[in-house]
Specification:
RNA binding; 5 helices
Length: 90
């Protein structure tokens, strides 16, 4: 996960790898898996860094207005809502 968060340069439009993947159908599947893994880490069901969930959740929340219109984006938001017990979109 560190490579996705920190290992890529911005593209010509100023987007990093995570931004691009959230907007792509196949890439979004990777982000959904990252979210599942980060949840498991935060619940101590898997080894990893606890910061993964915080960083990924923050990025999803910031991108919610852009991704809510995509079915794959809605899945990210629904999963995050389920875990956090909050509604991040109206």
């Amino acid at each position: 996960m560190r490579e996705i968060f920190d290992g890529y340069y911005l593209d010509a439009q100023g987007k990093d790898a995570l931004d691009v993947m959230m907007m792509d159908g196949y890439g979004n599947y990777v982000v959904q898996t990252m979210l599942d893994v980060s949840i498991a880490v935060s619940e101590k069901r898997r080894d990893g860094l606890s910061e993964w969930f915080e960083r990924l959740a923050g990025r999803i929340i910031r991108a919610k207005d852009r991704i809510i219109h995509l079915s794959s984006g809605k899945k990210l938001i629904v999963t995050l809502n389920r875990v956090c017990c909050q509604t991040f979109y109206a």
